[in-house]
Amino acid sequence: MSQTINLALIIGSLRKASINRVFAEYITSQLPEHVKIEEVAIADLPLYNQDYDNQTIESYDQVRKQIKQADAVLIVTPEHNRTLPAALKNVIDIASRPHGESAWANKKVALVTASPGSYGARDSGLDVRKVMQSLASQVMIAPEIYLSRATESLDDGQVSSERTQKYLNKFANELVDFIGE
Ligand SMILES: Cc1cc2nc3c(=O)[nH]c(=O)nc-3n(C[C@H](O)[C@H](O)[C@H](O)COP(=O)(O)O)c2cc1C
């Protein structure tokens, strides 16, 4: 039996009907049983403030612990105004501090972006890559997944397009290989 892999999942959208959540759920449903998924809840995190570094903020402790303990983090996110959503940047910042205690150093990070638009939230993905690089994370280089015209792959809150399913299945397999490397 394979050893358990702990995968933390961050969904960059706070929206109930988020298309990124649908893709995240599809991808995680394709992972083998030994990959345990734990979502990092980002919606109610107070906006990061360096003054808090000397205080105990339970929600901060919780997300820092989740990310530190995870073997890898999967980020599935939309793009807001050509970059990553503020709530995603907030959790990245929270887990990068206090100075010297970053949860991101050497952390394996995989990334998927999705948008109804033609560019698949690619700028958001590229910006997340840039941020994670500055934090010395090990970002999964390939395949790069920017799901464009993403609503066309969905029906009734599910990934209905066989082509997209195949593509995401391949990504799920490569994700497991990446985490196991
Ligand atoms: C504040 C805001 C800014 C947006 N900016 C972009 C953008 O720069 N590029 C893009 O492709 N879509 C943009 N969108 C549209 C989102 O891609 C779309 O709302 C998508 O459904 C968001 O993903 P979600 O369903 O997972 O929340 C923006 C949406 C909002 C609310």
From TrEMBL:
Superkingdom of the source species: Bacteria
Known cofactor(s): FMN
Keywords for the protein's UniProt record, in alphabetical order: Flavoprotein, FMN, Oxidoreductase
Keyword Cell inner membrane in annotation: no
Transmembrane residue ranges: none
EC numbers: 1.7.1.6
SUPFAM superfamilies referenced in this protein's UniProt entry, alphabetically: Flavoproteins (SSF52218)
Cellular component aspect of the GO annotation: cytosol
Stretches assigned to the NADPH-dependent FMN reductase-like domain: 6-150
GO MF, any single term: azobenzene reductase (NADP+) activity
PANTHER family in the cross-refs: CHROMATE REDUCTASE (PTHR30543), NAD(P)H-DEPENDENT FMN REDUCTASE LOT6 (PTHR30543:SF21)
Protein name in the entry: NADPH azoreductase
